What we know:
5-stranded antiparallel β-sheet; disordered N terminus; 26% strand
Amino acid sequence: MNKGIGKTGTPSSGEPETRPERSFVGSGTSPQTSSLASEDLLHKAFETMSCGWVVHEVLYDESGRPIDARILQVNPAVTRMSGRTDLVGKTLRQLYGDPLPRRFSHPLEATQTGQTIRFEDYYSESDRWLEVTAFRSPSDDYVVTFIDITERKKSEEV
């Protein structure tokens, strides 16, 4: 009797296929150990992903309108794409001048609405096209993620 797997993924014996139980991070461990393993996994993802990730503290004027943001955290992809190592602790106005370029007003506005925004824009500072996503975090900071789409844009021009 052949017990191999048929073309459809069902054992050729007609019996249902049994697979081993999957082990997920934290299964069979204490909540503390599970939490540490999850934090390690997230930290590794943050450090190695090709997507840029920037966390900003929003700065408001007296009327509560967002007017600037201070960079709190960046991942290595940001440094690779921008070539800058001096971003953390700086405000957008310190980095890009006043008034801020229009591309920064969208994410700042998203902090008030809570909406996730997406757009594509050319960044002359690094000669790259980026696809940008911005959203408000649970702690009211805002997070911007971006990927380099320069090659895609070049191929669209052809």
